[in-house]
Design goal:
Layout lengths: L2 H15 L1 H15 L2 H30 L1 H4 L3 H7 L20 H29 L10 H32 L3 H26 L9 H27 L3 H35 L13 H12 L20 H4 L14
Helix pairs in contact: 2-10, 3-6, 3-10, 6-7, 7-8, 8-9, 9-10
Length: about 325
Amino acid sequence: MNPIERVVRRADRAQQRSPVGSVVFAVVKKFGDDDGPALAASLTYYGFMSLFPLLLIVTTIVGFIGNTKVEHTVMGRALEQLPVYGQQLGRNVAHPLTGSWLGLGFGLLWLLYGSLGVAQSAQHAMAQVWNVPGVVRPGFGPRLLRGLAFFVTIGLGVSLTAAVGGIATATGHAPITRVLVLLADLILNIGLYLAAFRVLTPRVANPDLVPGAIAGGIGYTILVATGTALVQHQLRHAQVVYGQFALVLGLISWLYLVSRLTLYAAELNVVRSRHLWPRSIVQPPLTEADQQVLHDIAHQEERRPEQRIGVGFDPDAPSRAAADASEPPPTRWDQDS
């Protein structure tokens, strides 16, 4: 055994013995096993294809209503924070926003395409994360119904979050108010993640979705509290041309971060539910969790009821004792401890 491998194996044994470290590494490794970056990229693409036409529709409607009528409304104040759009609102702007029926129709079709795509992509991602065999996955009709339920859930969550933000604005910016609003947002985000996981994930018990919902809600609250302020600060001082690129790139980056966070939260649900830890950094040997994950990935490819996939492992594969007899094998962390 060379010195580098010896160091890596010692680090491997240390993480497998750690109650927290072994779970974290198992979540990260299963994210890679399930091709998580590709799933996150798909969610980001369809998410962008949903939000960008929505912005087009809103600005077109503002153009129909008239800049002067919406300048001092909630919608107008929101658009003023955006580069390019904000500089086209008001009484004396050089190029005011104008409405276009062609633009409105194109935006609605684009929004329909992106919305259907993000719903189907989200359901596919959850099925991949849970390694649901293709033969038992829902058909097109049930997926459409689940997609509709998903949009209703997201709409209610966003509405409640906006209501909390409106109450905070009306009651001032005292420190105690900010703390209460942050706690309210955290509770709403956890509930939103739990509801979204329930809608998108078939054949899974509700208690198995709670750990990921808590982790996702906490992570998303932190992202909103830190990321939104940073983006607004950067875009506020951007030039007009630069702001166009910054708006698109910032939106894509934000969606990708949220997609990865959501997938990691879903992977945590799977790891906790199936006790898929500890995982090994280097092989051989494979841990029981490694074998279980490989077994689930293989059976995920079943496409027909009459199809059967068998998975086996070589009993003569080198054991950890053979790899390094000087160190005892790591103890498995009991899930109930």
